[in-house]
Structure formats: C-alpha cells, structure tokens
Automatic annotation (TrEMBL):
GO molecular function terms listed in the Swiss-Prot or TrEMBL record: kinase activity
Residues annotated as transmembrane: 391-413
Highest taxon above the source species: Bacteria
Alphabetized SUPFAM superfamilies for the sequence: ATPase domain of HSP90 chaperone/DNA topoisomerase II/histidine kinase
UniProt organism field: Olivibacter jilunii
Keyword Membrane recorded: yes
The name this protein goes by in its record: Sensor histidine kinase
Length: 650
C-alpha cells in the first residue's frame, strides 16, 4: 500500500504535467532572495526537529510547484542549490526512494516549462531510472516527453510511430491497473501519450484509429477511477483528461455542440472538486472555447474570448501566432478579408519566429543527444576496461587470499606439531620431576627411619645403662649427700631417656606417614596442571598408611596411570567433576578414578567391537605390570575406573 507521502508526489507531478501540457507560461517571477528565504525557513525547521523528513519533502515540493504555477523559472545550478538539503535527505535512506523520483521531476518540469527539451529528456531518463529502482519497470516518462516535443513541432507522424512502439504495453495497462501491478501515475502518463496520438490520427483523418485510441483511453481512465487508492486530486486529473479526449473526438466528428457541452463539464469540475486547486482549468479552457466558437461560427462569443485570451496574465510570446490566427479567422467570419489577410501575415511572422526557435531547440536537443551518445560510447569503453581491471584485481586478490590461507594452515600445522612436542616434553619432564620428588621423599623416609632406629637402639640404650648404674651406686653408698646427688642425676637421666625414646618413635612414625602426604601432593600437582579450577571440580583423597608398603617404582607407575586417565577425561569425557581415591583393603592398594562425563560409548570395554582407546590400553598394560586388576564401569552419567594392586613394597 502506498503512503500519503507517495500519493502526494504522484498527484503533484501529475498536476505539473497537466499544467505544462495545456498551459501557456510567462516568466513573471519571484526574486531569488524570496525563494531562498522560504527554503531557509524549511531547512531550519527540519534541522531543529520541528519538521520530519516526509513533511519536509511535501512542503518543499509545494513551494516549488507554486513558483512554477506563477511562471517562475530556475537555472539548473540555482535549483540544485535550493534543493541541496532535499537531495541530501532523499538519498540518505532507501525508504525515501519516492522522494528521489520527485526530486528529478522538479528539474524535469522546470526544463519542460521553459522549452529546454534536451534538459527535459535528460531528467526524464533520470526519473525512469529511479522508477525502475522503485519497482516500476515502464513508467512512460521519456515517451511522454517525446510526444510533447513532437506535438509542439507538429510532427504527428513521429507521435504515431512512438505510440505504435508502445501500443502492446499500453493495451495491457487496463488489466495491469485493475490488478494493482502498476502505479496510477503510469496510467495517467499513458493518457498524456494517447491525447496527442488521437490528434495525430485526427490530422490524418483516420476515423478508425481515432475511435480505437479514444476507446483505449476510456479503458485506462476507467481502470484508474476504479482503483481504491486513488485520491481526490488524481480523480480530478483523470476526469479532466477523459473530458479533454472526448472533446477532441467530438470536434473530429463535427459534433460541435457536444464539444461545447463537454467544455461546460470541464468547467463544472471546479465545483465538483472545489476542495482541490482547480485554477489551472481556466488557463486552457479559454483557448478551447475560442476553437469551439470558431467551429460554431459565433462571432460575438468568439470576439469576447479572444479578448480574454489576449489579456490573460499567462499570455506570452509563444501565443502571439495563435492570437493573430484567431483574429484573422474572426475577421474572415465577419467578411473582413483584408483585415483577415493582415492578421494572417502577422501570424505567419510569429510562426516563423517560433519555427526558428524550435529549430534552435531541435539543434540543441540533437547536440545533447549526440553528446550523450558519444559519452555513452566512451563510458562503455571505460566500463569494459574497468571490468578487465576488476577481473584481474579479483583474480590477484583471490590468489593472494589462497596463498595467505595456505601459509596460515602451514603455520597452524607447525604450531600444533610444536605444541604437541612441547607438551610431550613437558609431560616427560613433569613425570621425571615427580619421580625425583618421590625418590627424594623415599630417601628422607629411609634416613628418618634409620635415625629413629639409631636413636632408639644407640642413645636410648646408653642412657638406660647410665640410669641403671646410677641406681646401683645410689643403693651402694651410705653417704646421704652423695645419695641425693645420685638420685637427682637419676631423675635427669630418666627424663633424657624418655625424650630420646619418644623422639625415636616420632621419627619412625612420621617416616611412615610421609609417603602418603608426598604422593597426594604430586597427584594434586599433576591435576592442577591438567584440570584447571575454572573448568573442573576436583576431589583427591589418600588414606593414611595406604602407601607404606608401596615402593617408588610402583608409585611412579600409579602416577602414570592417573595421568593417562586424566588425559582421557580431558579428550573425551566432557566432565565437570573428577574424583581420585586411594585406600588399602585386604593387603591390596585400591585406586578409583571417576568422572561425570558422557561415558565411553562405543569405546566401552566388553562391547565386542575392539575399539577401546589407546589410553585405556596403556592403563591396562601398566596395571598388568603391577600384577593388578582393573574394572571399568561407564554409562551416560560418567565413567569409573577401579584398579586393585598388591601393596607389597618393591
């Protein structure tokens, strides 16, 4: 559905077209200063936010249209400057496509109004291009302007040739309008083409073609009138064109009284459409009345309307030849042939001046088209060179992109390979560090046990012997003072004995607990590096005394089993929680590793497909090397690995 904004611009340019087609113009004019002041107000209102874009377009078009109706003509540069903000807004958003069409229509009507045929054809092409962007493939604007030019030059054969070139499309318009497949403005443009076409057939006395053309015009006009979105102004212009065409047919058939009645109907439109601007109807009506009274041979009425025509504010030099011709016919009608001859001579002189002007305009138009054609050829050549350059640019860009991609992939491959090598080295180094830590802690444990044993067997025994000797001496002496001193030494010796014995027991016991504390630390070190706290929740627990009888080699093997299990969790499990538990049960060391991941799936042991992962195979081999057993339970809720090995020191 078209917006009010769209309909307004359709109506506005139709009004200008009708006015320009049927009206006489004279450059009355309003100063440039006043025009600029008016647009400064509009521009200020838009910039201040008081005038939305759509309303700005409507008001700006209205101002220019009013100036056109008053006979104001703009130089192209002047109109470009005045409409600079209009152009900026219209091309700022795609939703203002219709305003772009209206923008070029203002230049188009300005050129048509003052006989700039080359410029008018240029802007007609611009309008057509914008219409096609808008979705209207065949707006008929260029064809309409060509018909106008041919009509002014009385080249009705050219008008008919143009009509025949568009005839098939024009005959489809009634159906296209009924189906809402074309804009109402296209139908009105078609009526403006059919009007001079009908006159061309009338000049050639082709009765059949005249009535066929009129019938097609009626069908198009009726289709426009029946459309739901047609506004009052569009109905006015449609009714006016329909009456004008019927008037031409009546004159062709010699039904002059019917023609007079049709002119009365045309005048009555001012009452029917009093809510619309209808002053432009009077401009053409005077001339049509003159022609009608000539046909009816009513000299008094003819004289009155010739006087109105001559004193009309829109009368200009271009109408001088017509005025002289009308006066000549009036004199001939009254039998004053000498006066008629004089006026005919004057009319002929004015006609020659007009012909000379038309020849100049035709030369300008021909020059403009030749220049445009030459420019088009040059543009085609430049475009061809541009396309070739673009092709090579695209080819080189594509080749460069492929080369960069290949280099990037090679770098990624090398980076991954290097990262894997570094990870392998880091893992090996980590395990070597862990092994060294275990060996160190084992040495500390052995040394601590040895020191505890030496303290218990050596120093404690010596202190016990000294204590026994002091006790014997105290019993053998009768000296009371010496006896007290020996008893005091005996008490001190007893205390030293207890301290030495307790310390030896403490060192011996701590040496038994140290491996568990060291092993748990190494496991945490291993998991902290592989399973960051930001992604995994970890639970690690080792029972006291569970690793007392497990040697260094077995501990390192257990660490490697845990490392393989963690690697599998990282690669496949997609788990969030990981738990590692070590405890002793019936002289067996039990290791359990579980996660809440997705499970082993097809890699689940015992499914018969032989697709267990390399990590699980490695774990099995390591468990077998410790003479142990392994059980794996896995489902969609996670995986649990339970390993049992004899807790015999090695």
């Amino acid at each position: 559905m078209k917006s009010k904004f769209q309909l307004f611009f359709s109506d506005l340019y139709i009004l200008c077209l009708f006015f320009l087609l049927i009206a006489s113009q004279t450059a009355i004019g309003q100063s440039k200063t006043n025009v600029q002041i008016e647009f400064n107000k509009l521009n200020g209102a838009y910039h201040s936010g008081h005038l939305p874009a759509l309303q700005y377009f409507v008001k700006a078009d209205s101002v220019i249209h009013q100036l056109f109706s008053e006979g104001k003509h703009f130089e192209v540069r002047e109109l470009v400057d005045i409409l600079s903000l209009y152009e900026e807004i219209a091309w700022s958003k795609t939703e203002y496509q219709r305003a772009r069409i209206s923008y070029y229509f203002l230049f188009f009507n300005n050129a048509r109004m003052f006989k700039k045929k080359g410029a008018s054809m240029y802007y007609a092409e611009k309008i057509t291009a914008e219409y096609k962007k808008y979705g209207e493939e065949h707006p008929l604007v260029e064809q309409l302007q060509k018909c106008k030019i041919y009509q002014e030059q009385r080249l009705y054969s050219k008008v008919i040739d143009l009509f025949n070139g568009e005839k098939k499309y024009l005959e489809t318009l009634p159906r296209l309008l009924q189906q809402n497949r074309v804009d109402e403005s296209v139908g009105l443009n078609a009526l403006y083409i059919l009007s001079p076409t009908l006159m061309g057939y009338a000049k050639g006395n082709d009765t059949t073609a005249v009535h066929q053309t009129a019938r097609l015009a009626r069908q198009i006009g009726t289709a426009i009138q029946r459309k739901h979105l047609v506004t009052r102004s569009q109905l006015l212009y449609t009714d006016l064109l329909m009456i004008d065409i019927e008037h031409s047919v009546a004159n062709f058939d010699g039904r002059y009284n019917d023609a007079k009645n049709l002119l009365n109907q045309m005048e009555a439109l001012k009452v029917t459409y009093k809510d619309q601007a209808t002053n432009f109807i009077d401009i053409n009506l005077i001339r049509l009345r003159i022609e009608n009274y000539l046909n009816l041979q009513k000299s008094d009425s003819l004289r009155s309307y010739i006087s109105k025509y001559e004193t009309s504010p829109n009368f200009g030099k271009s109408q001088s030849a017509d005025l002289a011709e009308f006066k000549a016919k009036l004199q001939a009608l009254q039998g004053n042939y000498q006066e008629a001859y004089t006026y005919l001579a004057i009319a002929l002189e004015h006609e020659r001046d007009l012909q000379a002007s038309l020849m100049t305009e035709s030369s300008d138009l021909l020059y403009a088209y030749t220049q445009a054609e030459h420019s088009a050829i040059a543009l085609q050549r430049a475009e061809k060179i541009k396309q070739q350059r673009t092709f090579w640019l695209v080819f080189i860009s594509a080749a460069s992109s492929i080369l960069i991609l290949v280099i990037y992939l090679i770098m990624v491959y090398r980076s991954r390979k290097a990262r894997k090598q570094i990870e392998a080295l880091n893992n090996a180094a980590n395990m070597e560090i862990i092994a060294m830590e275990e060996a160190k802690h084992q040495a500390v444990r052995e040394e601590q046990k040895r020191l505890g044993q030496d303290l218990h067997d050596g120093l404690s025994s010596s202190i016990a012997a000294i204590r026994h000797q002091l006790e014997s001496l105290s019993m053998d002496t009768n000296d009371i003072l010496l006896k007290k001193r020996l008893d005091a030494l005996q008490v001190e010796t007893e205390n030293a004995y207890k301290v030495a014995r307790n310390k030896s027991h403490e060192w011996f016991s701590d040496a038994g607990r140290l491996p568990e504390q060291s092993f748990e630390k190494q496991i945490k070190l291993l998991t902290d590096r592989s399973l960051p706290d930001s992604r995994y929740n970890k639970t690690i627990h080792i029972d006291d005394n569970s690793l007392v009888n497990v040697g260094t080699d077995r501990r390192i093997t257990l660490l490697r089993i845990i490392q393989e299990a963690i690697t599998n969790i990282i690669k496949h499990a997609k788990a969030k929680n990981v738990a590692i538990l070590i405890y002793e049960e019936e002289n067996n060391l039990i290791l359990t590793i579980n996660d809440d991941g997705v499970g082993l799936g097809e890699n689940k042991p015992g499914n018969g497909n032989g697709k267990s992962t390399m990590g699980l195979r490695s774990i099995r081999q390591r468990v077998q090397s410790l003479d142990g057993e392994i059980k794996i339970h896995s489902d969609s809720k996670g995986t649990e690995i339970t390993i049992s090995i004899p807790s015999v020191s090695s």
